[in-house]
Design goal:
This protein is α/β, with parallel strands linked by helices and 426 residues long. The protein is built from twelve helices and 16 strands.
Length: 426
């Protein structure tokens, strides 16, 4: 009986789907497609979860829900390219953390399988116009596959866009934000030896993964023989074949050079994430068409760094021709994604480039720009309606759509505000 109930429960869970998408038309708004020129008094039609049309004069389908956009702006939903949203709730409570595994090599970790769709941090992030995120585990030299997901759905599977958006890795460093930092009582020679050992371990692991992928390829061609499966190496096959990018969480120039050397040795596609020193190699990264996910920018430079290094980094990279996106690297602060981009505009990043970095360019880095990141007919309807530029702290989001669904903008903050606003008066 218990087995039958369990099976029924699993079947019911698997059958859960999102509600049918409605048809909406947003009229008389300033439409910012990102992929093209701004449209004054424009309209956006949303139907069947997709953007049906965008322009100054469009025909609204019969029965569509009309949203008066007079004085408002329409933008594509923003994308946080690095967070642990859904994997952590309260950082000081271990029981609410699911962000790392034991060991240095965990490529078989898939972040989406651990996502809590009912995290209180998700609606808090959504209400500020962030509709999509890259969420991933941390720790070790290979942390596992990051997931690209929308911030709406009953299950991780419903939220997911790409369960293998990138394999999260790092490169050893003696300091400045690498996998392990060596210091304390160790001498310079000891630190150098420890780093060298880790570099050798990482290279050996990638060499083993390349050999495993080659053997699997030959077995597939021969279509025979007993096949032994190594789950960790299975997860590395798309990376070694260039089908899944390796997202390297690195900061120093030496780390970035090490990553470029790995890319040359193993032919893997790489994305630099963090990249505090990426400005030092901007021309090289641009020439090699390697994207950089910058941030978080809401931190202070160290005493031996230029005062504006962190904040000017995105502008220097963009000017050199590097494709950039932004990350918050913190589930609780993912809602502050637009203000990270806004800070960069004060230090040389053009506003239109900042908007692209949190929308279309972020989608392009992960290969989904044909479906996300701009307001164009045929794309998924992740849309926000705002009172102004979403990077402006004074702007509020009035309407938000994810896959064409109108999403409630109530969150823990608004509930507590209303609760205490309505408290009994003495």
């Amino acid at each position: 009986m218990r087995a039958q109930l369990l099976a029924a429960g699993i079947a019911l869970a698997g059958a859960t789907t999102l509600l049918p998408a409605q048809t909406y038309v947003i009229r008389n708004a300033t439409v910012v497609p990102v992929s093209g020129a701004q449209i004054t008094n424009g309209s956006v039609v949303i139907a069947d979860g997709m953007i049906q049309s965008v322009g100054a004069s469009v025909n609204a389908p019969a029965g569509a829900t009309v949203i008066d956009g007079t004085g408002l702006f329409v933008y594509p939903g923003m994308i946080d390219a690095g967070t642990q949203l859904g994997l952590t709730e309260i950082s000081s409570v271990p029981g609410s953390e699911d962000t790392r595994e034991i060991g240095d090599f965990n490529p078989a970790n898939y972040a989406l399988t651990a996502v809590n769709p009912f995290s209180e941090l998700i609606p808090v992030t959504r209400v500020n116009g962030v509709t999509t995120v890259i969420t991933s585990a941390t720790g070790g030299m290979i942390s596992g596959s990051a997931a690209l997901m929308n911030l709406d759905g009953w299950t991780g599977e419903q939220m997911g866009i790409d369960n293998t958006a990138g394999m999260v890795m790092t490169y050893p460093s003696s300091g400045g934000g690498g996998f392990r930092r060596f210091g304390g009582g160790q001498s310079a020679a000891e630190r150098a030896e420890a780093m060298s050992r880790q570099e050798r371990e990482l290279r050996q692991y990638l060499a083993d993964a390349r050999s495993y992928a080659a053997v699997k390829g030959r077995l597939a061609q021969n279509d025979g023989g007993v096949e032994r499966v190594n789950q960790a190496m299975e997860a590395m096959i798309p990376v070694m074949r260039g089908e899944e990018p390796a997202i390297f969480d690195v900061n120093s120039a030496d780390q970035i050079r090490g990553v470029l050397a790995l890319a040359d040795s193993f032919g893997i596609k790489v994305v630099i994430r963090g990249g505090r020193d990426a400005w030092r190699l901007a021309d090289t990264l641009a020439a090699r068409q390697i994207p950089v996910i910058v941030g978080p920018l809401t931190s202070a430079p160290s005493d031996d760094e230029p005062y504006d290094m962190i904040y000017a980094n995105p502008g220097v990279l963009a000017k050199a021709g590097v494709t950039i996106a932004f990350q918050t690297d913190d589930a609780a602060n993912s809602r502050n994604l637009p203000y990270n981009a806004a800070l960069a505009t004060a230090y040389g990043l053009p506003m239109d480039a900042a908007i692209r970095a949190v929308t279309l360019d972020a989608a392009r880095i992960f290969g989904v720009d044909d479906r996300y990141g701009s307001l164009e007919a045929g794309k998924v309807a992740n849309v926000i309606v705002t009172t102004g530029n979403p990077l402006d702290v004074r702007t509020t989001v009035k309407h938000l759509f994810i896959r064409g669904q109108a999403v409630d903008l109530t969150d823990r903050h608004t509930r507590l505000y209303e609760q205490f606003r309505a408290r009994p008066k003495p």
